Amino acid sequence: MLDSVIRGVIGKLAECQDIHVDDLVILLSASDAGILQDLHDWADKIRKKTLGDAVLLRGIIEISNRCNQSCQYCGLRKENRKIHRYRMAEEEILDVAKKIEACGISTVVLQSGEDLLSMDRVCALVENIKKETDLFVTLSIGERCYDDYRAFREAGADRYLLKHETASKTLFEALRPGSSYDNRRRCLLWLKELGYETGAGNLIGLPGQGVSDLAEDLLYMRNLRADMIGIGPFIAHPDTPLAGFPGGTGEMTLKVVSLARLLLPKANIPATTALGILEKDGRKRALQAGANVVMLDFTPEIYRRYYDIYPGKTRVVTEMDVYLNVLRGELESIGRTIGKDRPLETTRESAS
Ligand code: 5AD
Ligand code: SF4
Question: Does position 176 have pLDDT exceeding 90, yes or no?
């Protein structure tokens, strides 16, 4: 009986995408292995139909680990005095961007904590990368004012990632003291309005989070018409107030990935690093449950160990060319190829 209700909801989702929070709660509460496999298979089918078998690669450079925020879950929070803080020099960043391009990857993601990098500095960086490479540039440097976002866009930035973190106002305010729920949402609307390909995303398994919160996350991203969606499990960091709390599960993360794919068939959804750390084969499983993007960390080793958001994150990997071959093999084993970026398809008026 319950099975048929759940299958009914999956069918409804797959056909018309007109879905209510209660429908999502039913699916997010499902634990039967057969049902979950059905959900992932549906999402995989939609991914194949709308985007094909190509997996898009992105090269990330963690340009600064300085942060003026106090998020209770994050190792980069300003109160964590145990980590050494760094800011990469512009020439170093440019060199790494060129390396990313030389590896055949067409997007660089510049990521940092909420460092107060000046607008001019960010613009100069984006302009130089655009001048010296053919890369798409994604920024992921947090909340800024409208004029900054506009200047970055005019300097050539193509995309912006700003995870909304959680759609629950109560949780957001409890876990991000000093940060405004409304302002974050306003930033996401501005980014859309400015014509960025805009990325939102949430954490799975935050203390106090329920399935209805996750359902709200999904509806929020659908209403925003997010172009990119980062979904990752919360992993407790020992040097934060949430040390010792249980983290999100791989099962729940994969459910949310699949539902995101069903709600937003064309979105770029990465198989996130955090899921890969949590579960053996996590990345492969996400790619078979709706995801179509893999992010590769190109941050120089001297800095990477300090980008300590959650445990396991800073793990050193093998040389990138060796690693890319391993990845290619892994993708081939599941019938996937490495693809080229699609052009921008975002629409300014699409956020509702
Ligand atoms: N576990 C998983 N992801 C985390 N992030 C921050 N802290 C954690 C954690 N403990 C994610 C947030 C943020 C990004 C920088 O890292 O979603 O957007
Ligand atoms: Fe800073 Fe982002 Fe971490 Fe919050 S989640 S402390 S804003 S890096």
Answer: yes
Q: What is the DSSP letter of 279?
A: S
Tell me the C-alpha distance between 195 and 177, whole Å.
30
Nearest Cα to 262, choosing from 11, 49, 17? 17
Q: Which residue has the tokens 């904590």?
A: 113
Atom of ligand 1 nearest to the CA of 74: 7
6-26 pLDDT, tens digit per residue, is 777 777 776 665 788 888 999
Q: Which of 143, 309, 314 to probe ligand 1 with, by most ligand atoms within 8 A of CB?
A: 309
Token reading at 8: 């009914």
The residue length of the chain stands at 352
DSSP 164: -
Judge if the beta carbon of residue 100 lies within 6 A of ligand 2.
no
The domains located in the chain, with CATH, are 2-346 (3.20.20.70)
Are 21 and 219 a contacting pair, CB within 8 Å?
Answer: yes
